[in-house]
């Protein structure tokens, strides 16, 4: 499944140059497939439990909360990074810094929320 997600991501990146109008569809497909893989792994994790329903609901809610935090905070920090960097160094460097800031926020939110719910 990881190969399929990686393949969808490569198609998404290459579609930006070849088929820009199809890029949102590929992005949504990549996101939905990633969510399906995550939710199926949650179901497999709690397959042998006595009462799996509350545990599955808890894990899916944690997944959704983490995803929303990453999207909102990563988007906001990406916008700010792009705005401040692109005025000094150009648009390309601004976009690269926005992507880096978004990935950093995603990593930090995932680690922080993981420590809260595991600890």
Instruction: Count all strands and give the number.
Output: 0
Inertia-based shape: flat
- Total of helices: 4
Radius of gyration over alpha carbons?
Answer: 17 Å
Helix-strand sequence: HHHH
Roughly what percent helix? over 70%
Structure overview:
By secondary structure, the chain is mainly alpha-helical. The protein has 4 helices and no strands. The protein has helices spanning about 1-20, 25-45, 50-90, 90-119. Helix 1 (about 1-20) packs antiparallel against helix 2 (about 25-45) and helix 3 packs antiparallel against helix 4. The longest helix has about 40 residues, at about 50-90. The chain is flat. It starts with a helix and ends with a helix. The relative contact order is 0.08. The mean pLDDT is about 85.
How is the topology of this model organized?
Blueprint lengths: L1 H17 L4 H23 L6 H38 L1 H28 L1
Helix pairs in contact: 1-2, 2-3, 3-4
Q: Gist?
A:
This protein is mostly helical and 119 residues long.
Considering the chains and any ligands shown, give keywords for the structure.
single chain; mainly alpha
């Amino acid at each position: 499944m990881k190969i399929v997600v990686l393949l969808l991501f490569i198609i998404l990146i290459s579609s930006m140059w070849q088929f820009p109008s199809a890029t949102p569809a590929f992005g949504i497909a990549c996101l939905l497939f990633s969510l399906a893989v995550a939710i199926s792994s949650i179901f497999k994790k709690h397959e042998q439990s006595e009462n799996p329903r509350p545990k599955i609901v808890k894990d899916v809610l944690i997944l959704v909360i983490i995803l929303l935090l990453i999207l909102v905070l990563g988007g906001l920090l990406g916008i700010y990074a792009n705005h401040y960097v692109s005025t000094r160094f150009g648009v390309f460097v601004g976009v690269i810094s926005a992507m880096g800031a978004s990935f950093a926020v995603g990593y930090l939110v995932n680690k922080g929320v993981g420590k809260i719910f595991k600890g």
